[in-house]
Write a structure and sequence with these properties.
Structural class: alpha+beta
Largest sheet: 6 strands, antiparallel
Radius of gyration: 20 Å
Strand content: 25-35%
Number of helices: 11
Shape: globular
Length: about 350
């Protein structure tokens, strides 16, 4: 039987999202094929043996509890726990971590050092996709339209905030979006409709990352599609979904996870030409970042065409999240999707990605 470490939680603001994602994946894994070893990462960053609760709901903000510490085996071999248990050799890891230290290439690098195959994107793609300003440059180089934006580091802003604010006032028309360069689930994102509010929004974003991106608001339909890499290396792309925000300024954390402030149209209606172009751009963006395994590609469909907003290398993965829902609409069930991702990770082995 294949021994799979399901790694979840993490020291990030998306800790609870990861816990609920782990529950969905755990429920879908074929236990006759895989022996699942649940490894939670506490909010303080401690790795522990931690069973996944069937009662977790995001509205309850689940947290990985303390437990016996886990010691990964650098260089390969058996993993251990502090209570003396030999966890054995891990055949593959399935990290469902969101945010810093999980979605940014950190865990992927550690798993490579442990010589453990893993599900999903590698070090480079994870790190670049997480750093939105760097990803935008690669998208532009690949001929994909992006929103106009400016990026500023925290220390640079602290030295001369007036200069950066003046740059923004000169460059942008309102509204603009202010977002941490490295965060997910819209954590720390603000829509700014008055320049007097811009500085406060930037300072708030710095509480989530030391680099902040200010972008012009793009007007259009918010559409997404899911990319799945097969064990052969071929890419498949799902039907398109659309986010229709209701009663909110934008698709923020609460709308995504808590209060139903948005309608997810899965699938949505696009012309054959629009869907074909979207599939082409999704594959191009996937390859431009050097992705592997999976990604959700997010666009605005504007009057002048598609504008990419991001590639999410570990999208929300509960059974009702957009990525699995898109595949469900395309004809791939949640358990099939999970198994394909595991098989692709096994096929890629321990080679650097």
């Amino acid at each position: 039987m294949i021994r799979l470490a399901l790694i979840y939680g993490g020291a990030s603001s998306e800790h609870s999202v990861s816990c609920v994602t782990a529950l969905g994946v755990y429920s879908a894994i074929d236990k006759s094929k895989y022996e699942v070893i649940p490894i939670g990462i506490t909010p303080s960053g401690k790795w522990v043996l931690s069973p996944i609760s069937p009662d977790w709901k995001l509205s309850d903000a689940p947290v990985v509890p303390d437990g016996p510490e886990v010691y990964p085996a650098l260089g390969g071999g058996s993993w251990k726990s502090e209570n003396g248990d030999d966890l054995g050799v891990i055949d593959i890891a399935f990290p469902v971590l969101h945010g810093p230290n999980g979605e940014d290439g950190s865990i992927q690098g550690l798993l490579q050092l442990c010589q453990v195959p893993y599900v999903g994107n590698g070090v480079l793609a994870s790190a670049v996709a997480m750093e939105k300003s760097k990803a935008k440059a690669l998208f532009q180089n690949a001929g994909i339209a992006v929103a106009e934006g400016l990026v500023v580091a925290e220390k640079e802003f602290e030295l001369d905030p007036e200069s950066f604010l003046a740059q923004c006032a000169k460059r942008f028309s309102l509204p603009v979006f202010v977002k941490p360069s490295r965060s997910g689930s819209s954590v720390g994102v603000s829509k700014v409709k008055k320049f007097d509010d811009l500085e406060a929004a930037i300072v708030a974003a710095f509480s989530h990352d030391n680099t902040v991106l200010v972008e012009t608001a793009v007007v259009g339909r918010e559409v997404e599609c899911a990319v799945l890499e097969l064990p052969t290396g071929e890419l498949e792309v799902s039907l398109a979904g659309e986010i229709v925000v209701t009663g909110r300024e934008f698709y923020d954390y609460e709308a995504k996870y808590l209060d139903g402030g948005a309608d997810l149209l899965v699938p949505t209606t696009l012309s054959d030409a629009e869907l074909s172009e979207m599939h082409l751009l999704a594959k191009r963006a996937f390859r431009a970042l050097g992705c592997s395994g999976l990604a959700r590609t997010d666009f605005f469909l504007t009057a002048s065409g598609f504008v990419i907003t991001e590639v999410n290398t570990m999208p929300g993965f509960t059974p009702i999240s957009m990525y699995p829902s898109l595949w469900q609409a395309t004809g791939v069930s949640y358990p099939q999707l999970v198994d394909t991702l595991i098989q692709t990770g096994l096929a890629q082995g321990t080679q650097p990605r």
